Amino acid sequence: MEYVFEINGGDFSSGGNASSTIKRALKERNVDPLVIKRIVVALFEAEINVVAHADHGTITVIIEEHQVQMFVKDFGPGIEDIELAMSEGYSTASDTVREMGFGAGMGLPNIKKNADVFEIESVKGLGTNAHIIIYLKND
Amino acid sequence: MLMTEIIKRIEARPVCGDACSLNTNEFEFAFASDLMSDVLRLMRDNTMLITGLCNVQTVRTAEMAEIKLIIIARGKKADAQMIKLAEESGICLLETDYSVYRVSGELYSYGIKPLY
Ligand SMILES: Nc1ncnc2c1ncn2[C@@H]1O[C@H](COP(=O)(O)OP(=O)(O)OP(=O)(O)O)[C@@H](O)[C@H]1O
Ligand SMILES: [Mg+2]
Questions:
Q1: Which CATH superfamily is domain B3-114 in?
Q2: Ligand 1 pocket test: which of A8, A51, A56, A91 has the largest number of ligand atoms within 8 Å of its C-beta?
Q3: Using a CB-CB distance cutoff of 8 angstroms, which residues of chain B are in contact with residue A41?
Q4: What residues of A are in contact with residue B38 (Cβ under 8 Å)?
Q5: For residue B50, how far is its CA from the centre of ligand 1 (angstroms)?
Q6: How far is the C-alpha of A135 from the C-alpha of A68, rounded, in Å?
Q7: CA pair distance B108, A44, nearest whole angstrom
Q8: Do A12 and B57 touch (CB under 8 A)?
Q9: Which of B9, B12, B41, B69 has its CA 20 to 30 A from that of A82?
Q10: What ipTM does this complex have?
Q11: Total domain count, chain A
């Protein structure tokens, strides 16, 4: 099953809708609640990063039998130093973003912590591509 | 601790119907933060969130983190979108005039445990 969502930068009112839809879909499939939580926390952090830092983007989620794949692609300022961005507490979030409760610099580390596979690439001035995989079963 | 007792201890107002009236829900742990990515790190269920952050992302974060009770401190008011989202996700929203510090102190003294 494949889901595609368009995400608008700065839209904190709708930000989270994609993750919420995926959460409901996984619940309906009776996926282990702990695995659901890892998937939706990783996806939500990635979704909010597009809203908070990018201009616009697309999220594609593919639910397969043994894994969930998430592709988060955005157009925006990109990330110049990914290693630095991945470190806990590093944030360039604007005041508006901080007022919404974000900007702890914990989003990318949270994705890494919850994902089985997390790849991110970015071109400064162009945008960012993230690929997250979480396995549904351990066997 | 039962919802009814929490409401009494912090003089709270329940702002969304169904989830707040569930008398069987026992709460054991609390976490206080205005930083949503900190909240998203919590792994224990049955944790309540005490916060001064009052916007739709507070509720979204609780939805993702499986938090079923949000206490909004300092007299801030949940808006219609927050209440709608909370109801859809079975989350109880409580408003209180107490500060985050006072809510935490009261509930701690009645046995609600910290996470760290
Ligand atoms: N999609 C993106 N486009 C551009 N920059 C990004 C993107 N995602 C992350 N960044 C950069 O990496 C930094 C760290 O991201 P991270 O998600 O860890 O923290 P944050 O979003 O600032 O705060 P938090 O996620 O804790 O609310 C951001 O502050 C921003 O500079
Ligand atoms: Mg982030």
A1: HprK N-terminal domain-like (3.40.1390.20)
A2: A91
A3: 40, 64-65
A4: 104, 106
A5: 24
A6: 6
A7: 30
A8: yes
A9: B41
A10: 0.94
A11: 1
